[in-house]
Amino acid sequence: MKQHNIERRGFLKQMAVTGVAAVGSGILPNSSKAEATPAAATKRKLRVGVIGCGNVCGSYVPDLLGNPDIIEIVSFCDIILRRAEAFAKRHEVKDFYPDVDKMLAGVGFDLLVNLTSMPSHYAVNKAGLQAGKHVWSEKPMAPTVAQGKELLELAGTKGVRFWQAPVVVITPQFRFMAEQLASGKFGPVVAAHGTYGHGGPDWSAWFYQKGGGCLYDLGVYNVTTLTGLLGPVQEVVGMTGMVTATRRCADQGEVKVEADDNTMLIMRHASGALSHVQTGFCYSEYELPPVNKEPALPHTIDIMCQQGSLHLQGWDWGPRCVDVAAPGNHRLQSQCKEAAPSWAGGASHVARCLVTGERCLITPGHALHVLDIMNACHESQRSGRRIATETSFAWPILPAV
Asked: Would you say 105 and 131 are in contact if contact means Cβ atoms under 8 Å apart?
């Protein structure tokens, strides 16, 4: 994150527009029960345990506390105990712990919010699921697809829910773009582009060490948005690089860069559309000149169709609006200017789904497919080959309007 924050007829119509046969295509597996079924309403507040009290926690906790009708934070946990203690004292929470085992053996709770470093996600998620807790995890859920599948199966076995960041599919702008594409008036989607990059975080070395990298930290947002809009990916081509040899980080001083900080990813979707993501920890930031005295934001998602185009203004985790070139009118018109939920609001969102029984558009199958794509990008770099994905997910993720 940046350092400074269909019903059937409609579905078949979209498949026809994109040139894919909906029946017999093999790209839309049966949804798992955990994904297809809304959570049962609990009729009480959800007790939340937060693990990982670093930089991201400072954004998550205010959002969680902003929902006192449904959420009660009962414990904090961090391997640096003083950080957990500081959050607990600041927010008048009695219990805090130095590791996940002690946390799970301590005061009871319903939802584990995993904000630890990326290399720790799998082990913490597994421990929480094994203990029968619902889990919200920052991205990615695990380092490998095999481990991700294991976690999804474990959640099903334990009868609990498992969700992962990011929250891009629940923004008004994502919904607007999905509905516009599903309408068919823009014609087939042929190409798309996503971009997200900055100079890189400086508070922790793990971003630059094995298991980190710009694709898993930043590009994951664009991959989630593009697959959410265009559907599952069949094959991937990737190129990655390391621009900077060393980095100075607050926790470890100067460290050797071992993970990609400059990445290009090309995806071929099952629909036939091609999309591209560029991401890096080596980008110089810029500002656009104002438009009609209002500050302009860059287009970070571009969807090109045969009869028009859609351009997301602002980051897909914090969009401002969608600029639309409609059929017969090539001049961009800004639409869908509604406020989007916070990028750190995923745990609060799934908590509300658990309490109310609302269907959640964020699904583990989608997150697993995104992990599959990102891993395939790195395998393509290693092998010099196109890499076929091994997973899919239930799509489209939005019901018909």
From this structure: no
Residues 180 and 327 in one domain: yes
Number of domains in the chain: 2
- In this structure, the answer to whether residues 294 and 255 fall within a common structural domain is yes
Three-state secondary-structure class, residue 256: strand
Kindly report the CATH number assigned to the domain that includes residue 69. 3.40.50.720
On whether both 131 and 178 belong to a single domain, the answer is no
**Average predicted confidence (pLDDT) for the chain:** 90
Pair 85, 79: CB distance under 8 Å:
no
Q: Is 43 left (phi over 0), alpha (psi -120 to 50) or beta?
A: left
Tokens standing for 319? Answer: 């969009």
Say how far apart CA 94 and CA 194 lie, in whole Å.
43
Do both 148 and 121 map to the same domain?
Answer: yes
Q: pLDDT tens-digit profile of 80-136?
A: 999 999 999 999 999 999 999 999 999 999 999 999 999 999 999 999 999 999 999
Whether residue 377 sits in one domain with residue 258: yes
* Contact between 130 and 104 (Cβ < 8 Å): no
**CB-CB neighbours of 173 under 10 Å:** 25
Rg (CA), the chain: 21
Contact yes or no for 245/161 (Cβ under 8 A): no
- Residues 161-167, mean pLDDT to the nearest whole number: 98
In angstroms, rounded to a whole number, what is the distance separating the alpha carbons of residues 237 and 239?
7
58 vs 394: CA distance, rounded Å: 33
What is the spatial distance between Cα 46 and Cα 306, in angstroms, rounded to a whole number? 47
Range of the domain at 270: 168-342+372-388
Please give the torsion angle defined by the CA atoms of residues 150, 115, 370 and 374, in that order, rounded to the nearest 10 degrees. -100
Sign of CA dihedral 315, 317, 323, 327: positive
Domain boundary residue, one of 164, 186, 220: 164
